[in-house]
Amino acid sequence: MKIAIHTDALARFGCALSDPTRAEILLLLRENPGYPSDLAERIGVSRQILSNHLACLRGCGLVVSEPEGRRSRYELADTRIAKAIDDLIGLVLTVDPACCPAADTEDCC
């Protein structure tokens, strides 16, 4: 039973990280909470595309939205998510420093 729960948890996190746009959103939110319009501009995607990715990240339980008047501010659902992302990046780069060079990201996985 515990293995199934752990498998589901890892699959949700993996789903969130499997898309470069969602990964970039998580990296930005790791630094500071953000508003969808600002995040879309920083990443270079439309607000609709960003909204779809935020919905996925909310569904995975990784981000939450906090209403602020007519706007919503997004942040990581738990501060440990930022630590987990940092640890995962550090681990991947330690195990394989040549992994995913910037010019070859599509062949990474």
From TrEMBL:
SUPFAM superfamilies: Winged helix' DNA-binding domain. SMART domains: HTH_ARSR (SM00418). It comes from the Bacteria. GO terms for molecular function: cadmium ion sensor activity; DNA binding; DNA-binding transcription factor activity; lead ion binding. Residues 3-96 form the HTH arsR-type domain. InterPro entries: ArsR-like_HTH, HTH_ArsR_DNA-bd_dom, HTH_Metal-responsive_Reg, WH-like_DNA-bd_sf, WH_DNA-bd_sf. It holds the Pfam family HTH_5. GO terms for biological process: response to cadmium ion; response to lead ion. NCBIfam families: HTH_metalloreg (NF033788). This is Putative transcriptional regulator, ArsR family protein. It comes from Mycolicibacterium sarraceniae.
